[in-house]
Design a protein that fits this description.
It is a single chain. The chain is of the alpha/beta class and 489 residues long. It is 58% helix and 7% strand. The protein has helices at residues 19-35, 39-62, 79-88, 98-109, 119-142, 148-165, 171-197, 202-228, 235-238, 249-276, 303-315, 319-324, 350-361, 383-398, 400-403, 410-413, 430-443, 451-458, 471-478, 480-487, and strands at residues 2-3, 65-66, 287-288, 293-298, 334-341, 365-369, 417-424. The strands form 2 sheets. A 5-stranded mixed sheet has the order 3-4-7-5-6, with helices on both faces. A two-stranded parallel ribbon has the order 1-2. Strand 3 (287-288) and strand 4 (293-298) form a beta hairpin.
Amino acid sequence: MHHLATSFDSVIPFIPAMIVPYSWSLILFVAGFFLVRTSTQLSLLSYRLILATIFACLIFYFYPARFSFNRVIPDDWTQFGYQFLQLVDKPFNQLPSLHVSYAILLGVSLWDVAKSKNGWVSVAYRLSLTGICTLIALSTVLTYQHNLLDMFGGAVLAVAVLMLSNRIRNALVIKHLALGSIGFLLIAIAGFYLASMSMIVSEVVENLAIIIALYWLISFTMLACAYQQAKPNRATRWFQKTSRGRLTAYTWMKFAPIIIIYNGMSFLGQWYFKVASKSQKYPLTPYAINDRVNVVASPRLTHTDINSHLTYWLFGCDSLERSRSLAPSPPSIHYQIIVVDVAAEISSHVHELEVAAKNIMNTPVHYLYLPLLDLQPLNDVLLKDYIDLFKRLEALTQSAETRAITTNNESQIANALITLINFHCVMGLSRSIGVQVLYLLYGGTLTVHNYQSWIEQHYPHAHLTDAYLPQSLVEAMANYKSVTYSTAP
C-alpha cells in the first residue's frame, strides 16, 4: 500500500464546505448523458468515461495507494456529508483521482452542447461548466480525500483518454478492452481470496491466478487491436487458419479465451437452432442462382448435423429418406461444394463437410477464407477483397478441372455439374448472409432495389442493419461490373 503525500499536501487547508462541489461529480456524471445532443457525442462521452474507469481500475490494482492524513469529521452542517462519504468512499484507490478525470472529461465532452445564437448564453454556460468542473477537481484535495499527486494523476489520465478516444474506431474496441480489464480484475481478486483460504499453497494459487488474469487481459487487448484495424483482411495475422479451415496452434496460444467463448456460442447456437425450429426441420434452404449454382448461408455446423444438412442441401431430403429412395441420383449429375468461411474466431466445418461429402457421393469440397470479426461492419472490408473472393468463386464454378474431378467420363458431366456455395459464420448468420447478399449483388442476381425484400423472404430472422451492411457498399457492389465494363478499353 503506497502513500503519496508530499510536503505540499501538509499546507493544504481542510475546507468542510467543499463537500458540496465534491458531491457534484455524481450529479454531473449522470446529467452528462442527458445533456449531449447527438448519438456521436453520446458515444464519445461513453468511450471516454469507460476508458478512464478501465485504466484507473488497472492502476488501482497494480499500484494501490491510500490517503495519508486522518480526517476529523466536522460537527457542523457538513457532518452528514462526510459521514456518508466515509461510508461509501474509503481512502483507497487514490491514484489517479477519478473525480478529477471525470470532471475534465465531462467538461470537454459537454463544452459544445449549449450552442446558441445569443453569444452570451454560450459564454455563460461555458463559464458555469468550467467553474463546476474546477471546483470538483479542487474539492478532492480540500476535503482531504486525495493528495496532490492523485489530482495530478487524474489530470494526466484524462488527457491520455482524450487523445486515445478520438482514435477509437467503434464501440467494439471499447467492449473488448472492458472485457479484458474486468476479466483480469475478477480472476486476480478470485485468486487472492482462494489463496487466503488455502494456507498451504496460497502463494502458488495467487501467482497462478495472476498469470491467468494477465493472459486474459493480453488476449482481449490484442483482440481490441484487431478490431481497431481498418482493413479486416489483416485479421489473418491475428486469426490464422490452415488450408483446411483449422485455427492454428499459434492462434490458440494468443486467443484461447476468445476461441473457447465462441465455441461455446456455436454450441449454444446449434442447440437453440434445433429447439427453435421444431416445426421446420430444414429452415436453411439453398437459393438457386441458376440451374448449376446454389448458395446458402449457415452457422458453423457441428459434426452431428453435417450429414443431415448436406443431404438436404444437395438432394432436398434427409439422409433417411435418401437411403429409402429406390431412385438413385442420375449418374450424369455431379456436385462440388465451396465453403466460404467468414468467421475469424472459430474453426470451419469444412473438414467434417469433406468427410460427409466423400461418403455421400465422393463430392469435392473447396475452402475459401475471408476473416471477419464478430459484428464488424461489412464496409470495413475493402471492395477489392470482396471482388477477389467472388472472382475465385467464379473460377471454381467455371473450372473444367473441378467439373471432371469425380468421374472417369468427363463428357458426361460437362454440363451437369452442380455447385453448392456455403457461406458460414459462427451462429448469428449476420456475417454469412451479408457476404452472400454481396455475392448475389456482384453476380447481378440481386439489385439495390430488391435485396432487402430477398433477405426478408429467405432469412426473415436476419439482423442486417444499415450500419452493418451500409447502402453505399450495396450500391458499390451492384454497380461494380457495369462500371468495370464501361471503363474497359
